[in-house]
Write a structure and sequence with these properties.
This protein has seven helices and 26 strands. The chain is of the alpha+beta class and about 525 residues long. The protein folds into three domains: about 100 residues, Hepatocyte Growth Factor (3-Layer(bba) Sandwich), CATH 3.50.4; about 170 residues, no CATH class; about 120 residues, no CATH class. The radius of gyration is 26 Å and the shape is elongated. One of its GO terms (biological process) is proteolysis. GO terms for molecular function: calcium-dependent cysteine-type endopeptidase activity. Keywords: Hydrolase, Protease, Thiol protease.
Length: about 525
Amino acid sequence: MGSCQSTPEDMPEDVPPPSVTPKRESQPYGSADTPKSKENVAPRPPEGPLASKSKEKSSSKNKGKSSSKGKDKKSESKSDKSSSSSKSDKKPSASSTTLVIKNSTNGAGGYDSSSWKLKKQQFYGSTTFKELGKKEIVQGKSVQEGIEMFKSNPEKYVAMIYQTNMVTDRWPANQCQFVLQHRKGTTNYGPKNVSPDGNQTILMFEYERLPPFPGNILPKQYRDKWTDTMTHNGQMLHTEYRLPILPGRGMGVCDDPHLKIIGDVDPSDIHQGAVGNCWLLSGISALAEFDGAIKKLFRKTKKLDQRPFDEPNMYTVTLWDLATWKEVDYKIDERLCAAPPGSGQLQLLASKPSEDSELWVCYLEKALAIHCGGWDKITGGQCTHAWSLLTGCKEQYTIRINPETGKYACYAKFNPNIGKWAPHANSPHDCEKTMWRCPWPRVGGGGDLDKEFTADELFKKMCAWDEENYIVGAGTGGTSDKNKTDGMVDNHAYSVISTHRNVAGTKICLFKVR
C-alpha cells in the first residue's frame, strides 16, 4: 500500500455518517539484515622460486500510492551509487603500525597529501570487502620497489599485500610477487585475522579528512545523551572494543576530501543500511525532491554549509512530536552508530554517506531514531508516518485496493464517526493502526468517501498530484524484501518521482520510483 498527503483544506470538515467501517493499516514496510562482508584470499606467493602466475577467482504491480503538497520540485538528480570503507574494531596491537605521510602539496582529485596515513599489518592472507575493484598482481619486481610504487600512488591504490618473508629473507626480485588492490571500485576493504605471526603483510592507505581524537573517542563533554546507549535488535551497539564511528576522522567512513554535511540535496543521496526502515528513507527521499525542505530541518545548526569542522561537531535537527503536533529539537553529536559485533569490519549500522560524501541523511536518520525511541522503533512503518514526523502535517491519504471490487479506495486516520483524528505517536509501533474511508483529495477531481476508482482513473489522479507537486510514495506487495517481482523489491517502500502519460506515443503510462 502507499499513501497520499494533502493540504489541510482537502480534509472534510463535515463528519460523514457514523456507518463508516474502520480498516487496519497494511503490513509495515522494511526489514533488513546486516550486510555480510565478502571474503577474499590474497594470492599467496610461492615459497620457493617463482611459480606460474596465480589465477584470480574471481514493472511491478503497485499496491498503493501517496502524496503531499510541496514546493519547487528538483529536476535533476545525481547517480544512485554509494561507497564507503571501514576498519577492524580490534584495538591496535603489535601486528599493526601506522605511518604518517607528510607532504604540503595537494594531490589529484583534491586530496591533501598530508592527510594520507599508511598502515602496516600482518595477517594470514584473507581479506573482507563489500565491493572489490581491480586486483593487480605484480611479478619480477622486488617488494621494496612495490612499496615505493604503492606509496607514490595513494589515490590509485588502497592496499598492497606481500609475503612477509620476502622482505625478512631478502628474496631476489625475480622471485617476488605482490598484489596491488586498486582504490576505484573497492569499498570496506581490510585484512581478516590480524596477527603479529601472520605470514602476509598488508599496507593500507587511509585518508583523514578531519583530525582524529585520541583512541577514536569523542571527549565526554561533546557527546549527546543517546549515542552511547543505543541498541539494535535488543543488542547494545557500542562497547570498549566497538566504538561509534566518527566520519572523516580516519575510522574508514567518509574519509574523503569532499566530506560535507549538506550540499546539493537530492533523493539519490539516500543509501539504506542494515535497519529495516525503507518506509522512513522513502519518505525522506520524496521530501528531498523539494528545494529547502531538508535544510529546514537543520535550520538551527549554525554554519551548516561549512561543517564538519576540525573541532567536535554538534547538529540540531528539528522534528515534529506527533503526540502534541509541536516541533522539538534534538542536539546530536557527530558520532554515527556502528553495526553490532559479529558483522565483520567496523561499518555503519544505518544509512551510508551519499555518493558525493554528504552526511545529512546519516544525521537526520540518527535524530529520527532517537525521536522515535531507538532503532528498533523505526523498523517497519509507512511513508505517510515519515512525512508527519518531517513536516508536521497530519492530513495524509492512503490509497488501497479493495480486493472485492478490484478498485481503489481512499483512507485516512481521521475517524468520521467521532470527528476526530486517531491518536498519533512518534514511533509507528506506538500508533493507532486503524484507518477509515474518507473523501478523496480535491486535487485530481475529488470523490466522496464511498467512491472507488480503477487503476487507470487512479493514474490520472496521480498525474494531477504530481503536477501540483504533492509528495507521492508507493509500496509493493509481498511478505519479504528478500524477494523481487519483475525487478521490484517485495514489501518495500518507494518514493514516486514523476508520472508520464502515453510514453513515446506508445499509449503506455508509467511512473518513476526510487
